[in-house]
Amino acid sequence: MAPFGFTWLTFAAFIVTGLSVVAAVLWAIFTRNTRNTRNTRSKKEDEDD
Amino acid sequence: MTKLFSDSNVYLGILILYIIGIILVGVLVGRKSKKGSDYFLGGRSIGAWATAFSFVAAYFSSVLIIGGGGFGYKFGLSSIWIGAINVLVGCFMAWAILGRPVRRMTQRLGSITVPGFFAERFGSPASRLFSAAVIIIFLIIYNVSVLKGMGNALEVLLGWPYWVAVLVSGAIILLYVAVGGYLAVVWTSFVQAWVMIFGLIFLTIFALIAIGGLSNLTASLSKVSMGLVDTPGEWGWAGLISMSLILSFGVWGMPQLIIRFYSIKKAKLLRIGTVLATLGGTIALLPYLNGAIARALYPEAELIKLYPNVPANLIADRAIPHLVKEVLPSWAGGLLLAGVIAAGMSTFAAILIIISSAVVRDVVQKSIKVEMSEKKVVIWGRIVSLGAGLLSLLIALRPPDLILVITTFAWAVIASTNLWPILFGVYWKRASRAGVFASMVSGGTLALLWEILRKVNLDPTELLWKFLALFKAAPEKPFSIHGFIPGMIVALLVIVLVSIFTKRPEPARLKKAFGS
């Protein structure tokens, strides 16, 4: 049994939700570090970023 | 001791405060619209917080709070999975995958509407017209269901006649949308998202106290049926997966949500926006959880007895309103009611702007080619918003049966039409004009026909199972498939295959769209 008497398959819904938030934070950090590495974008777009 | 104020008076007081606040926000921020792109897109000047939370508010309508609670009541804790997939696919993945490319490409192309994006990206005026027609027809119908949801909530919690509830909530939205345009929609939605968030959090806290915590909840539900605790439990995999997909993946093709990516001030703000929208989206789990709590607290037989006028098959929709009345103090009940109304208002308002832009920009200006000054575009934008809102309002006052049936799948038709053309438009250079148009027509039409056949008891799924049975490949327990699923699959195959076998897009158009 999972915490609070949930079945593991049902409790996994909460885990997926939590991981989605973590993934969003990691994605935000990751894209900050990798942006502006392509040289194909216009100067205007660099300014927009 | 008698209460100084009755519950419904407190509800009403909080609701009036909320409404005054919303009108003030809507009218004050919205006066800046001087040209079409201001009225329809807020001049691409919206920050990350307003974009993210207005997305959340437009995504989750009052139908989700009442209907999601109904699912939780009927099917138990497995329905929480729908909320979890909403967060993962409908919020995080939608923002991470579509946000930045949509923002950049629509700016390069100068498109301010979703149908306009199809015309400029693929050089296909036919796709613009088809998409605009689907948006106009089915979003007006979808709006009827949103208004009906708000009307029903006010009817149950305040005891207002249904028609008064629909007229009051509809009139308020029309006022601020017509006056304030997109900016008013975004900022009122921002406020509305917070009202929804706090309303749902308070409901969850008080409901959990009433049931004695999560452990008591699972213990009580398992006494009724283990199917209310387990996944997929009472629902079954087919129903649970298809409902999760429709309500999550469908977002990727809904113009009132995709437009949020167009209007954000800078592409870099999408990073923080993604985190905020994903966090805000977690409220999607709460209606299902509260519905399950209501099931543990108030058995079906008890609710049927309490609401003799409600048909037994619709009793689950009374779960949340009943829970609000029973467990929340008046002030929190008022806040939750304001949250339900906020959820409906923000969705309704977001849709009105999209309908208005589809009519004025895509049909009148670009397809019929009527010359208009920017000032006139704003004036006509206001008139059309008002007209479309009034039309939805009139239909919602006494919705014909046919309209009520269509509301259940309007979302699926719109998403099946727009989803792949948007995704392939920003990622696949080979997607051709013919491929996109064929995908739109086949996806939208199939989803529509499939659902119509299901409603008249000629379920195409049965034919499919009979066909698969010839090859001994039919499932042991046959189940019905929602039209969104075949619509999506066919639209995907068509866009890929037709694009491969038809003329490549012109390099100049690709250069303009992709910037390289």
Descriptive keywords:
heterodimer; A: 49 residues; mainly alpha; B: 516 residues; Sodium/glucose cotransporter; 23 helices
Could you explain the architecture of this structure?
The complex is a heterodimer of chains A (49) and B (516). By secondary structure, chain A is mostly helical. Chain A has a domain at 1-31. Chain A has 2 helices and no strands. The longest helix of chain A has 27 residues, at 8-34. Chain A is rod-shaped. The model of chain A has no long low-confidence stretch (mean pLDDT 80). With 516 residues, chain B is an all-alpha fold. Chain B has a domain at 43-399: Sodium/glucose cotransporter, CATH 1.20.1730. Chain B has helices spanning 7-29, 36-41, 48-59, 62-75, 80-109, 114-122, 125-158, 162-211, 214-224, 237-249, 255-263, 269-281, 285-297, 300-306, 319-327, 330-367, 374-397, 401-407, 410-427, 433-455, 460-470, 484-501, 507-514. In chain B, helix 3 crosses helix 16, helix 6 (114-122) packs parallel to helix 19 and helix 19 (410-427) packs antiparallel against helix 20 (433-455). The longest helix of chain B has 50 residues, at 162-211. Chain B is globular and about 65 Å long. The mean pLDDT of chain B is 90.
Helix content of chain B: over 70%
Major pleated sheet of chain B = none
Secondary-structure content class of chain A: mainly alpha
Order of helices and strands of chain A: HH
Tell me, briefly, the overall form of chain B: globular
How many E strands of chain B?
0
Which strand-content bin applies to the residues of chain B?
under 5%
Oligomer: heterodimer
| Major sheet characteristics of chain A | none
What would CATH call the homologous superfamily of the domain at 43-399 in chain B? Sodium/glucose cotransporter
The largest chain-to-chain contact, stated as pair and per-chain residue counts, equals:
A-B, 28 and 41 residues
The backbone outline of chain A, from C-alpha atoms, is rod-shaped
- What's the helical proportion of residues of chain A? 55-70%
The total of helices of chain B stands at: 23
